[in-house]
Specification:
Layout (H helix, E strand, L loop, with lengths): L1 H5 L4 H15 L4 H25 L2 H6 L4 H30 L1 H10 L7 H9 L4 H27 L9 H20 L1 H8 L5 H23 L7 H28 L4 H11 L4 H11 L5 H29 L8
Helix pairs in contact: 2-11, 3-9, 3-10, 3-11, 5-6, 5-8, 5-12, 5-13, 6-15, 7-8, 7-13, 7-15, 8-13, 11-14, 11-15, 12-13, 12-15, 14-15
Amino acid sequence: MRFLRRVRIEPFILAILAAVVVAAVLPATGGAATALGWVTTIGIAVLFFLYGARLEPRELLAGVRHWRLHSVVLAATFLLFPALGLLGSWALTPVLGEPLAAGFLFLTLVPSTVQSSITFVAIARGHVSAAVVSASVSNLLGVVLTPLLVFALMTRDGAVVITWDSVGKIALQLLLPFVLGQLLRRWVLPVISRIRRLALFDKSVIVLIVYAAFSEGVADGIWSRVGPAQLAWLIAACCVLLAVVLGLTELISRALGFADRDKRVVQFCGSKKSLATGLPMAAVLFVGQPVGLLVLPLMLFHQIQLIVCAWLAGHYGRAEGSAAPAV
C-alpha cells in the first residue's frame, strides 16, 4: 500500500487493470456473459439511485450565488471539452481508427468527478464549498447532457449508433433511478449513511462493467486491432488534452478576475472526467458495439488526471503555506 501511494496508483485503478487482464485470459461467454449482463444492469440502476440519494438539493441551490463560477466550470465540462474532443477525434482517426477515436470523443462528453475534484481543491487551499456545488451540479446535469451530447456529436458519421432501445434503457437505468433517489432521499440517506463500505459497492460495479466490456471485446476479437503505436498515440493525446484544459481554465479564471481559491475550483472541477459515471453510461449507450475500445480512452485519461492533478494540487497547497482550506 505504501508503494501504491508513492507512485499515485489507487487500488481501485489496479482492480480495473486486473479486470482487463482477467477478461483477456478468461472472458465471460455464453451463459456467464448473460448472467453478468443482468448483474451489471441491476448494478448500474442501483448506482444511479445512490447518486440521486446522495446529492443534496438544498446545497446545490445554495450555490446559485456563485453562478458565474459554476457557469465557467460547466462550460469547460460540456462545451470546451467536447470541442476539443471533436477536434481530437478528427485528428486521431487516421492513427487510432474509428472506435478509439470515438472513445476519445466520448471521454470529453462525460461529467466531472465529484470526490477527487473536491479533494484536490481542498489540498490546493481552494474554495471547497464551491467545489462541492460545481462537481455535484456537473454530475446532476451530466445524467441528461451526456446522452444528449452523444446523440448530437457521435451519431453523425455512423461510427456510433444510438437506437430507440438505447433511449429507453437510458431512461430506465439512469434517469429513473436517479430521480427516484432524489425523491426518496429523505428516507434512503439515513440508511446508506450508516453503511461504512458503500463506496466499495460503487467501485465493484465499475470493475464488473470493465470486465464485461473487455470480455465482449475479447470474444469478438477486437483487441487484435489495438497495437503499441495506437496505445502510445492515445496516451499522448490524453496528456495533451489534460494539459490544454488545465491551461485554458487557468487563463480563463485569470481573465475573469477570480480569486485564487475560486481559480482552483474552475481548474480542478473543470478539468476532470468521471470514470464512475462515464462507464455505466457507456454500458447503456453503446449496447452491441465495441464498448471496450470506446471506454479505453476514458480509463487512461482518468488515471492520468489523478496523477497530474494530485501533483498540481500539492504544488498549489505548498505555495499557499499552512493556511486552512477556505469553506
